[in-house]
From TrEMBL:
Residues 1027-1049 have a biased composition (Acidic residues). It comes from the Eukaryota. Coiled coil: none annotated. This is Nuclear condensin complex subunit 3 C-terminal domain-containing protein.
Amino acid sequence: MGEESETAMASPDRNLTQKIAKILNETRTSYATHNRKLKELATIRSKLSSSESESSSVHQFSSVFFKTLTPLFMAAQRRTAAAERVVRFAAEFACLRRISDGDSDCDEFLEEFLKFLVVGSVAANRNARFRACQIISEIILRLPDEVEVADELWDDVIDCMMLRVRDKVPVIRTFAVRSLSRFVNDPENSDILDLLLEVLPLEQNPEVRKTIVLSLPPSNATTQAIIDCTLDVNESVRKAAYSVLANKVPLQSLSIKLRTTILQRGLADRAVNVSTECLKLMKEQWLSNSCGGDPIEFLKYLDVETYETVAESALEVLLSEGLIMPSDDKSIQQYILSADGEARDESTCSAPSIQLMEPEVALYWRIICRKLHKSAQAKGSDAATAMGAEAAVYAAEASDANDLLERILPATVSDYVDLVKAHIEAGPNHHFASRQLLLLGTMLDFSDAMLHKTASSFVQELLHRPFEQELDEDGNSIVIGDGINLGGDKDWAEAVSKLAKKVHAAPGEYEEVILVVVEEVARPCRERTADFLQWMHMLSLTSLLLENGKSLHSLQGKAIEPEEILHALLLPGAKHTHLDVQRIAIKGLGLFGLLEKKPSEGLVRQLRTAFCRSPPPISIMACKALVDLGMWHSPTEVDKAMGQDLLSQFEDESIDFAPIDLSNAEEDMNFKMLDLLYAGLESDDWRAFTESSENESVKATVGEGFAKLLLLGEKYPNLPASFYPFVLGKLIALYFSEESKEQLRFKQCLSVFFEHYASLSEKHKGYVSKAFVPLIRSMWPGIYGNTKSSSYVVSNQRKRAVQASRFILQMMQTPLYKKETRGEPESQFNKSPEDSIQPPLNCTEEGLAIRIAIEMLSFKEKKTAAEKAYVAALCKILVLLHLKPSDQNVIKLLKKLLSLLADSVCSEKELLKEVKPVLEHLKSLDACPSEELTQDQANPIFETLGVSYNLEITETTTVPQTPAPCSTRPARSRRRARIEDTSSDEEEEVASPPPSAPNTLMTRSHRASKAVALAKIMASKVKMSNVDEDDEEEGASDVTADDSDESDE
């Protein structure tokens, strides 16, 4: 009876299981069947609840449904389309609400299903966790708001998903984040937002990062995190960040800095999808929705005076897309009014009344006019090269652009001059608008004589404008601006120069006009009656001329000759008592030297003196001038200009550099230019004067100059070979030093330099390899005279040295850039013989391995703690090298060195564990393991690498490990064999050690003496004859005598 009742009970469950399984199988084929199958499954559930009690029916249906769905959780399968359809169907059924069904049945089933999924989400099986989190996320995102679920159950689901956010499987983390995205806006669940912000910068998978970004709500806490994702390495993450900014973050809630950062990164992004998404953000959300399509209003959100380049690029993109274009009733002419308040035209003779422009308006009109001017020129060129109807179309387009440009620009040159003057006289608040209007002048036509005269007099006024100044509390005059360029602003000086070149476009006219003004302004300076402001004005004009001049020949025959500029203006200015005058004069000297065919002695001597003896701001300027001269004329030519023999420590291959003390005024500066510049890298404190630019320092300026010289080293063949690895090592040390953390611009410059340097040529890799050992040795604390400090400082120093070693290894392993030297591309089957030539040994990782092995063998067996840590660090680098089957002699040498190294570190298990795999790899690369490498075969390799090592000496001294294993029998047998073999003087000479042996044998004198003493004691116990001992002593004395004679010689 019991078996029959169990069978009767199992039969309905089996039928229900078959029905549910059939429905689930049919949902695998297409999403189109889901609606019909949802109704069928809901009907089965409703029929079951009507035939039995409500609670038991739901429980029975749920248990059978879960059991039928279980294979989906357990099977380790791929994300197939069929399985994804089943997952979606299960989530849709859990969220299903029908009027015919009772809500209680649906809610109870949903709760049972969620409990089942929560259990699956913490399972050990990866696929079970994945499917559980996937279905939970689908249910949460599809569940209607009116559905009521117990708070305790939601808390369990949220806690479980927060735990899965840190799962080791990326796809599980993705669905866990999707599940939490619906609760992240709830203020009661602030811990969810904190968790997402915490894991976002640490997440390695791009898909998970993208899901987190899309889940973040708009708030002050999340805005910066979203904007940081615009710099993500993955394109999809960056695109998602811009999508979130467009859809969730309003323009008004962002600061000006964040707005410009978003546009600057997005518009310049290399990925087309990302830049398109940024354009969509700017066009649809910011311009259309927030600014009503008004570009002027849009520019007001960007602060064009501070972020001019960003606003300019944004306007250019909008113009290229055809989104903005001036209407017919707007132009610059509406800001130039007649006396009656109407817009002026060419027939109006009364004095104009100028309406001042806002900065955004001035920038807007400049970009519009520049766009039209370029378009007219381009279409005109196309019309000139085309023929027929095509040429007529291009000519018509060029004519339309010119007509629109003429309608926008001021009607006359006089009106333009009055407009600019009004903005200049309005004060500093309109300085930006004045500069934009100056640049508009390059689009005007000054060919008419009267127009040219009017514009020329205006240019004269601009050149005669002195520096603006203000008085401090003590009544001293302070220059407003940078104190270097004309008008105190580099952009202003460039605008004035462009307008002057446009007005005075005839050959030599531009230089003549500026020199006339310089000669006039320089009169008080020559007469010693000028104050420092007049000196600065004169020198700024001179620098402007030299900066835009092509050669000194174009300055000859003018108001002031080139020699007069140097000796009467620049050199006296460099010796002026005022520091600002000295700085601008040093800049002028550097520009003057670039125009000379060969640098003059007085100019070079003054720059060297300024670099060595002046405060940091002037030293920085002198350093820039010296570096520019060295790169233009070559460092050798700059040194020749001194007219005397100069010393250089870079010519010494030993790289033992004695630093020059530039702070000592009495020290002789009879050194070459590179030595003086290198002293700037070595000096720690540059005199008491410390007022320097926030982003500049002497070390950073010298470092950038050396980086340029290293990159272009092939153009300077006369530089000593030791210069490159020595300076390269110093730059790497500075890059990882503690003091360079604040020099962000310097570190950015070096990071770009290192990224390209090793990939440019094989020579560069050779310099990197040669710089490795001296650099790491100098950075490691406690060895080779490096001072020790506290344990914390020593730990940081070791970390930096390890970072530097791995960084150099990365540079060595970076592949070379492909050089396209042929006009036609080569196929992979038609390569030149040069492509198959192996690089020189000193440029390969094998050469670096030899250098590291010799450095490790240079330490004694009994090492200090610092030496042990140093050797261990080198050993870890040695393991990371990719050794290839190159020259067999190189492989044999490496194998021999590492064998000796393994013998020397046999007592240190960790080091031996690191060395053995490399040694086994080398043994596999050795084609003839039985052949040994001789010293004569190794010497050419050592000469190539610039190192020296004696393999034979090392072998004789490293065989005996400890005195304990020594016994009398082996000792006597060796001695007897030696006595029997020494039958002649020639054989004695062959058996004797090399001349350099005594120095190495002295390191084992104590151990050797102990062995001899033990041998004598054992010999006396067995009553050996004293004849052998006497012979041995005589042999030893002979060897000692020979060695002493050789040492005397």
